[in-house]
Amino acid sequence: PEFISRAEKLADERYRATEWNYGSAYPYDFNRRARFSGGSVELSARIRENRIAELTLHGDFFGDAPAEELTRLLTGTVFRPEAVAERLAAVDLDRFMHGISAAELASLFE
To answer: What is the largest CA-CA distance in the chain?
Structure first.
């Protein structure tokens, strides 16, 4: 009972923290490609301090708005699928990528 709540608190404060699981200061480049029903997407990102510092999206998907506009919206986001999905929830993704869902795009950030 009490030791379980203390263990849960420790897990929340330390072991479930982004810094613990993903590192805190090591910059790196990340590339991923996937095929969805709306087209293929290739993602290239520079990660600095666990955030998307630079991002490019290429592929054979179609959209009415340029992908560069979407990459600007995602720059600065914490580099985790959940954080990207949260940011995409406020965006009409179909403007940029017809037939690709926010969950599908966010899955590239794993």
So the answer is: 55
Cα gap 89→62, rounded to integer Å: 20
| Residue 19 reports pLDDT greater than 80 | no
Whether the model pTM is above 0.85:
no
| Average pLDDT value over all residues in the chain | 90
Q: Residues of the chain with pLDDT > 90: what percent? A: 70
Query: Quick one: 27 exposed, middle or buried, by C-beta within 10 A (0-12, 13-18, 19+)?
Result: exposed
